[in-house]
Amino acid sequence: MKEWLKQYKMYVILGAAAFLFGVFYWMAPLENSKIPQEDEAEWSMADLEEPQKEEAADTTQKIIMADIKGAVKTPGVYKAEEGERVIDLIDKAGGLTSDADASKVNFSIRVADEMVIYIPKKGEEAEGYSGNSTFTAGGESTLVNINSADSSELETLPGIGPSKSAAIIEYREKNGPFKTIEEIKNIRGFGEKTFEKLKDLITVN
Fold it and tell me: pTM for the whole thing?
């Protein structure tokens, strides 16, 4: 046996080396193949997480600020959520006062950002309170310009009917354009109470 080992020692060493090389060569692709699998797993997890984040962002509700005036217990600016209606904002303002004229209010209108809501009192001039005219979606772009508005536009304002819209038009034709919104009080029938209802809804620009 010893003689055989001496005689074939070189072949044994070469055979062992070839065997080890073969094992290493065979195992290396398996190790390398694990890397793409891990990368693929990481990519899959990241791919799943992104839509979830986007979905969470989509479910965030828009915050709306609206101004409620007139015959409510606590007038003021209130925060509302998208989809809430006028009746919800009235509740936040403490409800209607005993002299509120609920027959002239559309409680089902959805509240919009920067909306001005005026709740009329019983006995107030009914003209201009029908339908959506009680509620003016705010922002500068929706203010009624008393220097250029025609009678139909003026009559969308609370308490402004044909006679008062005609008075506004007559005043500006005789005296020129209004320089300030306060100047409207110079017209007969436009006292401080009427001006309080209109000041946030009109402009001269």
Answer: 0.41
